[in-house]
Each structure stands twice: as structure tokens, then as C-alpha cells.
Design goal:
single chain; about 450 residues; elongated
């Protein structure tokens, strides 16, 4: 086809050359021929452009050559695009039909968190109506501060969910999850977890009530045991050992009851009621002193790397409980003369409290369940240092950090030690009101 354009141009130039030689105006003849060819080409391009803009009202260039090839290629691409568009449209219809049938509320959001599409369940659970609410920001439709914060903080995150009260029915609870979808879009899914929430509430109330009822008789029992231990010198030798064992188990039971009550109170609220600036460096200093006492004759080597100006917003008592569980676990599971490294630092992701040890480590299959209540990696295995616990420490730490908008991460390998990290987002960081020198200490205690 393209050869025809070349022969057409050569024929026109040859004709112009013959005319020019006959008239003695060869230059002008060739110039006129070139101008005519350019004008004809421009005319065909204009016809092609009009045809591209409105195929129904205009005819395409019909001369054999490159214009005809362009027309055929455009027709081919248009037909292929039409088929692809139809195919994608069918996929979209199937997706919409499938999501309409889902019991979970589903909303498609664009980069500005504006509603692009929603299924019928979204109207029932979130009050998002499609197509009426297309172009409206989801946070303007569902006016919930927790949802707004969740939407803004999970743009680059995956896997974290949010539990909120259903905006359309205060008796119901929803679990909300977002995930990337399509071209820079996100899909928001809200699942009804009312039954699960009610079951967890019943369980928590039961544990709290039982723990509360046990606290008084245990206190009375310990009181009598203390009286008996005070007079143990007058008792038969066989009784002394029994009194000491009874006292040890009574103390353990009291600690268990106290931690169950603490865990129940933490589960009752999602956030700290009256957060304050917590002096974390000073808190870690107190924990270090207690960890040395707990270590005792085991003589663990403690390494501290603390940002002396770094504080966070929250509850000091709760953070003390969470951090102490992470640090004391390291003492319990690290052999004598082992190394325990404690760090409190900040980076672009936020503030981090990490406890790293070179203890016995944990197998990978146990890591996802470590924060469950009473979970044991091996129920028959005692701690390497013989120090008992309640099995609630990591569960308490996880709930405390959740109330502080923080997360607990665990890395471990058998025989290589473990690293427990409490990670706080940048929004929870606070500066010390009275600055002091940033320090790093190393203690062989």
C-alpha cells in the first residue's frame, strides 16, 4: 500500500519535470507539483481527522495507500477496544452481582475516599446509598471519629481491622476492613460481628465476675497462711514445707486473679480515657531495676539504648504493665549470663520499645497464638529459670498497646532468641517538657 504513495509522488514529479522541460520552467514546475502533493496530503489528513472525531457523519480517506492503511488499523483497534470494553463490562456486572449478593456491606472508594459504588448491604449497615451517594466522602456519610481516623491511617496499610458500633443500629457491631482495589482505589468491607461481640462480652463478664468473687476468699486464705508462716518455727518440720508451698500457690492464684481483672478492664474500653504524656525513659529505668532483681543470681547482661527525650501519650500504669511483661518474659526465658537488649527509639514509622534476648526462642508455628490467654508453647515445659507466670502477660500487653493505637510484633527462632517490639505511630509521640541529655547505658547486672 505504501508503494502506491511513492509511485503517485514520483509520477507527479515526472509529469512536472516533462512540463518544465517543455516550457523552460523546470524549477517552478517541480515546486508547483510539490505544493499540490502537500495540499492533497493535508486534505486527506483533515478528512481522516474529521472521520476520527465523528465516524457516522464523515467518510474516511478512500485512496489506496498509507491513509487507507491507517483507516483499517484504526478500525481494527476500535473493534478490539469495543470487545475489550464489553468484556470488562461483563466482568464488572458479574462483580457487582456477586457483591450485591454478599451479606457484608461493600463500598468502593477512590483516592479521595469518595464513594464510587456500594452494594445493598452498605445502605443497611452504613447508610451509604448507591448511586445517590456517588462522589460523597465516606467520612461525611458515616460520621464516626474512629472510622475517620482508621480511613486516614490505613491508606498504605493492609490487614488491620476496626470494630465500631453500627451507625444504623446501636445494638449491632461491625468489623471494618479496607484493601487496595483496582486502579488506585480501595474497597471497604463491613461485616456484622454482633454475635461474636456479644459472646466475647459474656465471656469477659463471666471471667471478671468469677475473678472478683475469688479475690476475697484468696485474700482471707493468704492472711491465715501468713499467720501460720509467722509461727512456722513452732510447727512440725513437715508442716513448714506444706505452708511454704501453700503460700506460693496462693500468691500465684492472687496474681492470676489480679491479671484477669486487669485484662477484663482493658477489654471494656478501646481507648485510654484520660491520656497524659508518659515519661517512658524513666519508666524503663524502673523496669530495668526490677528486671535486675528478678534476674538475681542468673546475672543477665542488660544493654539499654534509650532516647531520653522520647515520650508518648497514654496511661503510665498500663504502659508499665505492658513493657514489664515484655522485659520480664525475656528474663524468664533467657539462660544465666544471657544478654537482654532494651531499646527505646524513634524513626519515620514512629516510636519503638524493643526487648531482644538470646534465649531459647520460639518455633514459628507458635508465634500467631502467643497473645492468646493461657497459651503455652509447650504446656509440659517449665521456664528455663523456673520462674512461674500466669500466661496472661502477652495478652495484657497486646490489649494495652491496642488502647494506645500501637501494635505488638514478635520475631523469634528456636535457639536464636526472641525480639518483642511495641510500635507506636508518630501521632502518639510527645516531647519531654523539661529536656535532658539523651543517654545510653550498659549494665552487667
Amino acid at each position: 500500500m505504501q508503494h502506491q504513495d511513492i509511485w503517485r509522488l514520483l509520477g507527479l514529479l515526472l509529469l512536472a519535470l516533462v512540463v518544465g522541460l517543455a516550457t523552460g520552467l523546470t524549477g517552478w514546475a517541480l515546486f508547483l507539483a510539490a505544493a499540490l502533493y502537500i495540499a492533497w496530503t493535508q486534505r486527506e489528513l483533515a478528512r481522516l481527522l474529521r472521520w476520527l472525531r465523528n465516524r457516522k457523519a464523515c467518510e474516511p480517506p478512500e485512496h489506496a495507500g498509507v491513509f487507507e492503511e491507517i483507516t483499517l488499523e484504526i478500525d481494527y483497534l476500535r473493534e478490539r477496544h469495543k470487545k475489550r470494553k464489553k468484556k470488562l463490562g461483563n466482568y464488572l456486572k458479574q462483580f457487582q452481582q456477586a457483591t450485591r449478593a454478599l451479606p457484608d456491606a461493600t463500598v468502593v472508594l477512590d483516592t479521595d475516599d469518595e464513594v464510587r459504588w456500594a452494594n445493598g448491604a452498605a445502605r443497611r449497615d452504613l447508610g451509604v446509598c448507591w448511586p445517590e451517594d456517588v462522589g460523597q466522602r465516606i467520612t461525611n456519610i458515616v460520621r464516626n471519629p474512629e472510622l475517620r481516623a482508621y480511613i486516614e491511617t490505613t491508606r498504605d496499610e493492609e490487614g488491620r481491622s476496626l470494630e465500631v458500633v453500627c451507625p444504623m443500629d446501636a445494638e449491632r457491631h461491625l468489623s471494618i476492613l479496607t484493601a487496595p482495589y483496582g486502579n488506585e482505589q480501595r474497597i471497604l468491607v463491613a461485616r456484622d460481628i454482633t454475635d461474636l461481640h456479644r459472646a466475647n462480652l459474656i465471656r469477659s463478664d463471666f471471667v471478671a465476675n468469677v475473678s472478683h468473687e475469688l479475690r476475697t476468699p484468696i485474700t482471707v486464705f493468704r492472711g491465715y497462711l501468713e499467720t501460720l508462716l509467722a509461727q512456722a518455727d513452732d510447727a512440725p518440720p513437715a508442716w513448714r514445707n506444706a505452708f511454704e508451698q501453700m503460700s506460693g500457690h496462693a500468691n500465684r492464684m492472687q496474681n492470676l486473679v489480679q491479671e484477669l481483672l486487669l485484662l477484663s478492664s482493658l477489654e471494656a474500653e478501646n481507648r485510654v480515657k484520660q491520656p497524659q504524656t508518659v515519661d517512658v525513659p524513666a519508666l524503663i529505668g524502673e523496669l530495668h531495676d526490677r528486671a535486675r532483681e528478678l534476674s538475681g543470681d542468673l546475672a543477665h547482661l542488660f544493654s539499654l539504648e534509650i532516647d531520653g527525650e522520647l515520650c508518648v501519650r497514654g496511661s503510665r500504669d498500663e504502659l508499665y504493665s505492658a513493657f514489664s511483661n515484655l522485659l520480664f518474659n525475656a528474663v524468664q526465658y533467657t539462660p544465666a549470663r544471657g544478654i537482654i537488649r532494651v531499646r527505646w527509639y524513634r524513626d519515620a514509622a514512629g516510636a519503638h520499645f524493643t526487648v531482644e534476648d538470646n534465649g531459647i526462642g520460639i518455633a514459628p508455628e507458635h508465634l500467631p497464638r502467643l497473645t492468646e490467654r493461657f497459651y503455652r508453647v509447650d504446656p509440659s515445659r517449665a521456664r528455663v529459670n523456673g520462674i512461674g507466670g500466669t500466661g496472661l502477660g502477652l495478652a495484657i500487653a497486646k490489649h494495652v498497646l491496642s488502647r494506645h493505637n500501637a501494635t505488638l510484633s514478635i520475631r523469634s527462632e528456636p535457639g536464636q532468641g526472641s525480639t518483642f517490639s511495641a510500635d507506636f505511630p508518630p501521632g502518639e509521640i510527645r516531647e519531654r517538657s523539661v529536656p535532658r541529655t539523651q543517654g545510653r547505658a550498659r549494665d552487667a547486672g
